Each structure stands twice: as C-alpha cells, then as structure tokens.
Amino acid sequence: MALPDSVTTCLSQPVHYVICKLGFEKKDTYDINNILSGNGEVRWQAVTEHVCYLESDQSVDYIKSILSLGPICESVNLYFKSLTKEQFVIQYVSWFQWTNCTEVFLEVFDVLQCTQATEVALGLMKLTSCLERALGDVYLLKGNDCPFLLRDLLASEQLADVFGQAVMNVLRVFIGSPHGLNLRNVLWHGFASPQEIPAKYCAMLLFLTAGLGQLLQTYLLQTKGVLVHRPYVIFISLEELDAFPDLNNEILTIAEELVKLSGFVLKMMLPFWIAALTAFKQSRYADSVILLLPQLEVGLRLLFTTTNKCPNRLLTAESSALYTTFDEILAKYLDNEEVNQLPVVLEEPAMASISKDFLWDFLNHQEGPRIRDRLSHGEINLETFPREVANQIVGFAITILCRFSDEDMFSLKEHMVIKPLMNCASRYRSRFHPISRLKKQVLECMKSIHLWPELPTVPEEEVRKIKELEGNAEANNLISMISEIICQLQHYVAQNCSNSDDLVNSVLTERLLVELCDTYICTLYSPRPVLEVVVVLRKISVQCHQVSQQVIAGAKLRYRQWLNKTLRSRQRHNYRRMLNSIKFMSPVLQLILLLITLELVSVHSVCKKNPFDYQQYLKFLKSVLQYTENLVTYTSPEKNKWDETVDLTKKTLIKIRKNNDRKLMLMHLA
C-alpha cells in the first residue's frame, strides 16, 4: 500500500510552538552566576522563581514558565560549552553518582559540545531514562510501590518531601507533564525529529540532575539515610529471543540503502535510522535500539493513520487528548469502537513478513522482554545491553523497510542476505503470549516426568514387601482407568487404541505432546474466556511439574538413605509405598499434560459455547487444579502421604472420564 511522503513534522502546531519557539521568544541574556555558586552548586531558589503559577488554582502555568526559563536554559548551555571535559568532571561527577549512571551523564556533556541534533536527541532519551530510574530509587526512601508513569512519580509527595515541591515543579516543566515541554514522551514515542529538540533543554536537564544530586546529598546527611539502587533487569534465556539470523555488515549496508528509499521512513526521521544502524555497527547496542524503537512506532503510526483514515492521529496530541502509541496501534479496536484496520493490512500476503506477534512479544507481553518499557524507564543497564536483543529489533526493522519499499527495489529485497530475514519474519510465532508459555511449560514438565524411569531404585522384591498387597492392585486399577480415558481421547490424538497392549507407553509420549504443541493457535486478541482457561491450565501445569520435581528429589534421597541403611522401619515402608505410587503417578501426570494440550488446542471453540457450558468447563478444570495442588502437598517431603494419593487420583480420573463422556455426547449431538 502507498504511504504519504509529504509529512514534514509529527508535532502538532501548538506542540511545535511550545517546544521549538516558545522558549526562544525572550531574548534576554541571563547571567549564569545568578543560578550557580562559586563551587558549582545550583542556586535552586533563583531557578524556581522562574516557574509561574495560575492565579485560579496555583497550579503551574507551563506556558509562562517555559517562556521565563528559556533564557536560563540558553545560559546553561553556553556555560557547559565553555567547560573542558576535565573541568566538568572535577566539578560535577560526584553529583551524578546518585543516578547510578554517571557515564551516561558524562556522555551527554560530550554530546552538547558537538551539538549534532541526532546525538542530542539520543542523549536526552538516555538522560530521561536514567533520571527516572534514579528518582524512583529516591521515592523508595519514603514510599513502597514506585509509580510506573513518570508524571505520577514527579507529582508524588515522596519526591516533594525530599527535594521540595518547587524543585519538582521545575522538572515537570521539562518532563512528565503533557502540559509542559514533555520532552521525554515526544522523543520516546517518535513524535520529534532531531532538528525539533533544542540542545539547550538537554543542557538544562543535565544541570538540574546535578542540582538534584546536591539536594539529595544534603537530605541523606540530615536523615542519615542510604540510597539503595534497584537491580537492573537482566535478560535471561536469550535463545528464546532468537528470531533472526546474526546481522553482518553486508546486511547492514543493504539496510542503509533501504532506509533511504523505503516509504516506511519519514524523511525528517532519516537521521535517526542512519544513526541506529551506525550504532549497531559500532557495537553500541542500547543506543541502536533506543534510536530504532521510536522510529518503528512512528512508522507504524503512519501506517495506522493511513489504513484507518485518520491522518490527524499522526501528530502528537495536545494535553487534552491521547497520543497514538504502540498500545493503540496494536489494539483490536479504535477508541471509537471501530475495528483497527492495521492488523488486517499486516495479514495481507504481501505483508506476511511483518509480524504483529513479534511486536507483541518484544514490547507488550508481560512475560516477554518488554524492551521499550524497560529501556525508557531506565530498568536496563545500557552499558551491558545484549547484542542478541538488538539483533532482533534491527532485523525486524529491516523486514519492515523491505515490505514498504517500491517494486523497483526488487534487487535489494531479493538479495541473498535479505531473504533469510524475510523468511524468519514470515514464520515467526508468538513466544511470550500466555498460550505460548503454557506450551513451553507442558513440554518442560513432560521432560521432567520422563526422567523418572532413570531414577535409582531398590530391587523389585523390596517393593513387593508391602504388607497390604491391595496397594499393587489399586495401582493397576488406576492404570486401567487411564487406558480407558486414552481410548476416549483417540478421536483427538489420532491414535488407534486397539493396536496396542500398552496404551500408556504408546500414546502418552513426548513426541505426541510436541506435535500437539506445534499446532498453530492464533494468539492475537485472545478473548477473555480463553485467557481465563489458559490461566487455570498453566496453574495445573506448574503443579504437575512441582510434583515431578518432588518425586525426583524424594526418590534420590530415599535411595541414598536405603543404601546407607539409615532409614528407620517406618521410613523404609513409606519408601516402598512411594515406589509403588510412582507406577501410576507418572501416567496420571502425563495424561493431565495431554489433556492440557488438547484443551489448549480446542480452547477457542470451547469458549464460544454458551456461558453455562463455559462455566461448567472451567469448574471441571479447577477441580483438576485442586487435585494437582493436593498431590503437591501429599508428595512433599514434609507430608509423604502416598496412600492418600491413590484415593485422590481415583476420584479425579472418574471426573475426567465423565467430562470426556459429556464432551463426546455433545460432539455427537452437534
């Protein structure tokens, strides 16, 4: 589809005026010594007196404040330009240590010396991210749950108690309030181009951060408090994020050509794209992703506004309206309840490589990396940002550039190093949706249960020493019930039960579960009933895995004690009962995993039934959950109630059989 190429700004006229012009209207030259003492400390009173307030309710008058603070920002910018790096470090480095990101603030000073617009914008994004994280640490000196949104954090009583309300009002003029300059949001959401962010505002925030460090130092001395920094988020299991092959210089060189020609890139944003690719080449992976994420958002916003015929939503909103951000771009419905057409466009065969699942996985799903949130809120150590993560974001961006390129760029799009990227994108399936996580849980649990046959065990004659021989009979009866249930399920698992004498071992296999879990399930916009069912299924899976781990640990421990002859008479008896119970418990757990997987595959159709059927179905699943929870209790080292597991299992198998009978009956009626 054709995208408009006439866009010259993503800032609405009022917002453009506030950011690019308002702070320049007063031409006064401000003496830096008015706000700076001889030893470099900020004279806060001289700064705060430039914040203006409305007569009506004494709230901040942001327009007049920006106008009044404009000359001060210019004076601070010129002051920093007059310093050498050595002078700046000697005078200010100690006052940035409270941020736990001193190096980032020193980098921002370097950027201000060259005033390259793209680097200034990048520096400002990193500065606001680190500043927000540090302010959150300060908040926790006096509060418990740190606010997620910057505007709520800056408006909190806790920070006002530490720094003073007047100081916090100065900060809110620059960041955190949609009524002010709102520099953090317009940059992180991709509304501002490099040329639209005045360097003097970056300089002022650098200056204010040092001033906050001075105030905090005084506060901590007075209160004898200690500022504790929250640990950074660390990406684990990086292999789960591996969607695209490693990007080499040849791919990146082609990407640089695509950026210049792709309709997905707004021309005034081109410097951000070039800088992002350059940063990746230079192994500055956090910088690369910080630069790219807002550009993906603005590009998708352009596509969103074009497909939904709402061009006005491309611009940054006023304080009285909502921004069009990733959340709305990826939503099922627009704010007027009409269907969002963007997902429809992305499902067209020509757009097959552009995966909504990828965006949801990397940006939104709670169990995913949530890269944009964590970067923009300062939760990630920028110095150790992993190449593996950056590789995925850049790889995904390249596939979008390709799909929104002209047909005369066919040679680039079909290049031998680009096609593997496109193929990976077209095959991508969600990895962090609750349904995907459930599949992973099931397979991990099955692997755990399959370790049971390898557990060390005493000779079989020892197990037969159980006085109550009916224990063996009960175990055999339970296995027979499991076989009956498997026969009920043959319609779903495509297995011929009549051809096997050992249904448990021939049907309840890891291979079958892998095949079932590989069945494609649409995860996008899963209805609430589906997610409610998945929540219960995941809890069941967790309990099954816990039982398996307890059995493995218990069996190993008791075997060592048996070898060392340290088991008392009662413990030996209990150990034999455990070994007897394992005979039926393994197939029971495997049966439950099979049921979970089958329910998962059919969950969408189940939840489309009438509410009564759905609620009855959910009630059944919760009864299975209760069984697995009890099983965890009985098999724990504290309880060791193996006899009780027999009766408990029998009752649950009866419920499962009845539920299957009911489902088969409904199927025949249908």
From TrEMBL:
Q: Name one Pfam family in it.
A: DUF4209
Q: Where is the DUF4209 domain?
A: 131-211
Entry superkingdom: Eukaryota
What protein is this chain from? EMARD protein
